[in-house]
Design brief:
Blueprint lengths: L2 H14 L3 H14 L4 H13 L3 H14 L4 H13 L3 H14 L4 H13 L3 H14 L4 H13 L3 H14 L4 H13 L3 H14 L4 H37 L7 H22 L4 H8 L1 H4 L3 H21 L5 H26 L9
Helix pairs in contact: 1-2, 1-3, 2-3, 3-4, 3-5, 4-5, 5-6, 5-7, 6-7, 7-8, 7-9, 8-9, 9-10, 10-11, 11-12, 12-13, 13-14, 13-17, 13-18, 14-17, 17-18
Length: 354
């Protein structure tokens, strides 16, 4: 085997194990001696995409097309890069050309489906994704394309079926695991979703999106506990009013309600996390140090809600007016939190990757 072929083989092996920086070193040596090696240019562009540099990847793919325009791969790589750069019209043109040159290549149809989705053409995207499945019925990536289209068209049952098929074909497919977990979390199945993310992390511990989604799941749990604490605070406040009005003779019903609230919140946390591995629970406990921005606001509101409920349960009846003022302020803060997390978008958002 000649030196150039050995370099390309080493580069491909390094890419397979995720060592894209080292692969670029091998490829740069190959291109230094043979700057017109189109395969080396394509592999370089793929590495640049994996390392988060779509600008350079697009330039590299364009260089490959300047040498060879009869091969679909440079068109497909450039389409991926242009998609990441938000240049959807050009990305679609490149994807169409890739399919024209290689009509029996499933990867070309998958990228065409992605490009069509970005142009808000879901019906055409569905046809392209289904064609990819026809060409490669045992390829998990083709079913991910189908799931992506189903997600865009809000066909949740079809999306889940496609993701489960992808995972059945490739149990190590991190994207399928993440997207299934995201579906569970967004439907309120926190324990199941967290377990799915943990399983994906066991396959790929370095995937940043999985870590972000796991932190978002922790914020979702906080939101659930905050809702329970707010309901408990309102119940305790009502009991406090009845106590001040003489309807309830003593403080013990209020204290009992506070105790029941603590038990309910502990049970909610336990029911969510009981099947999660201990290592993942330790990771979740470290989430307050990692979260930023709006997520920290959710944490602050959780702490304030819990403390308010506890204080209302234990405060002297003579401070009832102050307690009601605090509860009113808390409810307004919760309204603001709802606007931030739902309307503005983001504190507990769980993202898919396809």
């Amino acid at each position: 085997m000649e030196l150039g072929a050995r370099r390309l083989e080493r580069a491909r092996h390094l890419m397979e194990v995720g060592r894209h920086t080292q692969a670029l070193t091998e490829l740069s040596q190959q291109l230094a001696s043979n700057p017109h090696d189109v395969e080396a240019l394509c592999l370089t562009a793929v590495c640049q995409l994996e390392l988060g540099d779509p600008v350079q990847a697009e330039e590299t793919a364009r260089s490959a097309l300047g040498i060879e325009m009869s091969w679909e791969w440079p068109f497909r790589i450039r389409s991926v890069a242009l998609t990441q750069l938000g240049r959807s019209r050009e990305a679609l043109e490149m994807a169409r050309e890739s399919v024209r040159l290689a009509p029996h290549e499933p990867s070309a149809h998958r990228q065409l489906s992605t490009a069509l989705l970005n142009r808000r053409r879901p019906k055409e995207a569905e046809k392209a994704a289904n064609r990819a499945v026809e060409l490669a019925p045992h390829d998990s990536e083709s079913y991910l394309a189908v799931a992506s289209v189903a997600d865009a068209r809000r066909r949740r049952r079809q999306e889940r079926a496609a993701l489960e098929k992808a995972l059945a074909l490739d149990p190590a497919n991190v994207d399928a695991r993440n997207n299934l977990a995201a579906m569970d979390l967004n439907r309120g199945k926190l324990g199941r979703g967290i377990r799915g993310l943990v399983g994906a992390l066991q396959t790929d511990p370095q995937e940043e999106l999985l870590h972000k989604n796991l932190d978002a799941a922790w914020v979702r749990l906080l939101a659930r506990l905050t809702a329970a604490a707010l309901i408990g605070a309102v119940v305790v406040a009502v009991l406090l009013g009845l106590e001040v009005g003489g309807v309830v003779p003593s403080w013990w019903p209020r204290a009992l309600a506070g105790g029941v609230l603590g038990v309910v919140m502990a049970w909610l946390a336990w029911a969510t996390l009981r099947h999660v591995p201990a290592s993942a629970r330790r990771y979740l406990r470290g989430a307050p140090r990692r979260i930023r921005g709006r997520q920290r606001f959710v944490l602050a509101v959780f702490v304030l809600t819990t403390c308010t409920a506890g204080w209302l349960a234990a405060m002297p009846p003579g401070m009832a007016e102050l307690g009601y003022i605090l509860l009113a302020v808390l409810i307004r803060l919760l309204q603001i939190t709802f606007i931030i997390t739902i309307v503005v978008g983001g504190a507990g958002w769980v993202r898919s990757k396809v």
